[in-house]
Amino acid sequence: MDDLTTKKCVSCNAKDMRPMTVEAAHSLIPQGWNLVTEDGMMKLQRTWKVKTFMKGMEFFKLVADVAEAEGHHPDLHLVAWNNVKIEIWTHAVGGLTENDFILAAKINRLDLHQLLSRKVGE
Fold it and tell me: Its domain of life (predicted)?
């Protein structure tokens, strides 16, 4: 598998762009991410627990900077006060494209440790 972090998201306006198959999606899924299906549409989803509400806002800013640089924008959710959830899919095609996996891989590379709550036993 290619290193997705070295790739750049492409325009979603291409008329020939189609959602990928479940098999193709499973071959690209980055560590820590889950494939979910909502309303017949595949999405990438991942959750984190942050230390504080403001750490959640910092987390979103780091993700937003990557998303803006790629021109590909995820759905960001802060649930309760410290549960961050990101959902990624290509809205223009109603499913997953390589762009989604590129963005997820780049989010995985972010240094988020100072924002995250420690798990019991760490």
Answer: Eukaryota
